[in-house]
């Protein structure tokens, strides 16, 4: 166990709420965990942030950098049922799957499909929209506070359609955007050329989601948030937590190196690794994994990093997202439903790269290999935020699928209110951990 930052905070902040003076260990230092640590620290808790790696170096590092209102629509939406016949060949860039993995996890797989029905979809979009809107406001403030405004863009992002037919097929998505008041503008081929002249003329239509943010280095943002936490007296410890148990009013954490830590409360923010820890606590959780790949490209011969695009773009037919990043153009694939630690399969990235080269001059690859990350997903695509079943003073905030980077601040605000017994700014019931997590 290595202490990366040592706390100098020895007394609670005056005027803080019920968490004042409480020792809280936050397990997991991705965007969700770091935001949770910051929020609890601001309320007077004495917080330690635990992770086996430095903050922001796992799943939160590898996303497309988009903080978007449009992310309220999950993968398992009603249109998934219509797509099933076309998915049988397992060759689409937007969605691949390992059939053996799905057959070994029928509870999650069938639940994922069942929750694509309209009634659950309506509840999910309502819940996620509230979480996203709350998070965007906090992100804006926090990015300014940590001096990272140079990484932030408010130019929105684009969904691209290669044909009028493709645009028409997305009508239900457009209707959801209208219903939730998302600021969108439909662009013609000429409009798109004016807005993004580096794109080749292969797209007939585009939807510009204007009330969205993006950053050019997601990992750097998480690290900056963690730096602010440490500067305010928080302690960051390099440790892999392997077990949790109650000991009277205290919570005991077992670590891989044999150390044992004691705290008043613990919060599990381990993303795709949450399932391992939860099962060691004697609970079952149907957590699946939406894996994704990315790779950076230089953006053309002699091009400067991140040149060519003014905002991230999603090629709906190509099944990829291309984002201007500090390191170059980041090409992110669609979803691969597979075991968290399964051997990487480069075919999805190869397919995405071929499609992207039809749309823009990618240039040479910068990364020698693809990055691979796993996004944790519960059957209804909503995170678990709240108290863990049958475990005193242990709380959950995991299962954010693809939008953990976007919704980390809002999740932290919601969780902290619940821990203090306050009424949160958005409904908490849709995120109750006990809707899926069961004690054995």
Written account of the structure:
It is a single chain. Helix 1 (31-42) packs parallel to helix 12 and helix 5 (118-145) packs across helix 12. The chain has a domain at 2-59 and 220-283 and 381-439: FAD/NAD(P)-binding domain. It is globular and about 65 Å long. Strands 5, 7, 8, 9, 17, 18, 19, 20, 21 and 22 form a 10-stranded mixed β-sheet that branches. The longest helix has 28 residues, at 118-145. Strand 19 and strand 20 form a beta hairpin. It has helices at residues 31-42, 79-87, 99-104, 106-114, 118-145, 164-169, 171-179, 189-195, 218-231, 274-280, 347-359, 404-420; strands at residues 2-5, 23-27, 46-51, 66-68, 95-97, 152-153, 157-161, 184-188, 205-209, 212-215, 235-238, 241-247, 250-255, 260-263, 265-268, 283-284, 288-297, 313-315, 320-325, 328-332, 335-337, 371-377, 384-387, 394-398, 438-439. The model is unreliable at 8-16 (pLDDT under 50). With 440 residues, the chain is an alpha+beta fold.
Give a quick set of tags describing it:
440 residues, alpha+beta, FAD/NAD(P)-binding domain, seven-stranded mixed beta sheet, 25 strands, D-amino-acid dehydrogenase, FAD/NAD-bd_sf, FAD-dep_OxRdtase, oxidoreductase activity, oxidoreductase
Short description:
This protein is of the alpha+beta class and 440 residues long. It has helices at residues 31-42, 79-87, 99-104, 106-114, 118-145, 164-169, 171-179, 189-195, 218-231, 274-280, 347-359, 404-420, and strands at 2-5, 23-27, 46-51, 66-68, 95-97, 152-153, 157-161, 184-188, 205-209, 212-215, 235-238, 241-247, 250-255, 260-263, 265-268, 283-284, 288-297, 313-315, 320-325, 328-332, 335-337, 371-377, 384-387, 394-398, 438-439. Strand 18 (313-315) and strand 19 form a beta hairpin.
């Amino acid at each position: 166990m290595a202490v990366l930052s040592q706390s100098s905070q020895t007394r609670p902040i005056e005027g803080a709420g019920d968490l004042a003076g409480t020792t809280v260990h936050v397990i997991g230092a991705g965007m969700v965990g770091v935001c949770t640590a910051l929020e609890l620290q601001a309320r007077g808790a004495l917080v330690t942030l635990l992770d086996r790696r430095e903050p922001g170096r796992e799943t939160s590092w590898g996303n497309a950098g988009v903080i978007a209102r449009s992310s309220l629509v999950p993968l398992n939406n009603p249109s998934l049922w219509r797509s099933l016949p076309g998915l049988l060949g397992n060759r689409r860039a937007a969605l691949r799957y390992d059939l053996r993995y799905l057959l070994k996890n029928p509870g999650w797989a069938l639940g994922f499909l069942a929750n694509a029905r309209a009634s659950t979809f309506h509840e999910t979009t309502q819940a996620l929209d509230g979480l996203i809107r709350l998070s965007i406001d906090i992100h804006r403030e926090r990015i300014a506070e940590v001096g990272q405004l140079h990484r932030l863009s408010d130019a929105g992002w684009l969904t691209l359609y290669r044909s009028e037919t493709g645009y028409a097929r997305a009508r239900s998505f457009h209707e959801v955007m209208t219903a939730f008041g998302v600021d969108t503008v439909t662009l013609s081929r000429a409009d798109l050329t004016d807005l993004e002249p580096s794109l080749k003329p292969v797209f007939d239509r585009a939807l510009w989601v204007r009330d969205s943010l993006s950053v050019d280095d997601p990992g750097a943002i998480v690290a900056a948030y963690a730096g602010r936490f440490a500067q305010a007296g928080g302690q960051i410890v390099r440790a892999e937590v392997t077990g949790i148990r109650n000991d009277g009013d205290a919570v005991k954490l077992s670590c891989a190196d044999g150390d044992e830590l004691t705290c008043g409360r613990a919060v599990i923010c381990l993303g795709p690794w949450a399932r391992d820890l939860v099962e060691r606590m004697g609970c079952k959780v149907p957590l699946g994994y939406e894996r994704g790949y990315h790779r950076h490209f230089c953006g053309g011969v002699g091009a400067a990093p991140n040149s060519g695009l003014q905002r991230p773009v999603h090629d709906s037919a190509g099944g990829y997202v291309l984002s201007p990043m500090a390191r170059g153009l980041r090409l992110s694939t669609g979803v691969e439903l597979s075991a968290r630690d399964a051997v990487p399969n480069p075919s999805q990235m190869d397919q995405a790269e071929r499609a992207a080269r039809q749309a823009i001059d990618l240039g040479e690859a910068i990364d020698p290999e693809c990055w691979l990350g796993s996004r944790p997903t519960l059957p209804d695509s909503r995170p678990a935020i709240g108290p863990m079943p049958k475990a005193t003073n242990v709380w959950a905030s995991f299962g954010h699928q693809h939008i953990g980077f976007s919704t980390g601040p809002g999740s932290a605000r919601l969780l902290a209110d619940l821990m203090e017994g306050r009424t949160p700014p958005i409904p908490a019931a849709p995120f109750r951990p006990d809707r899926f997590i069961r004690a054995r």
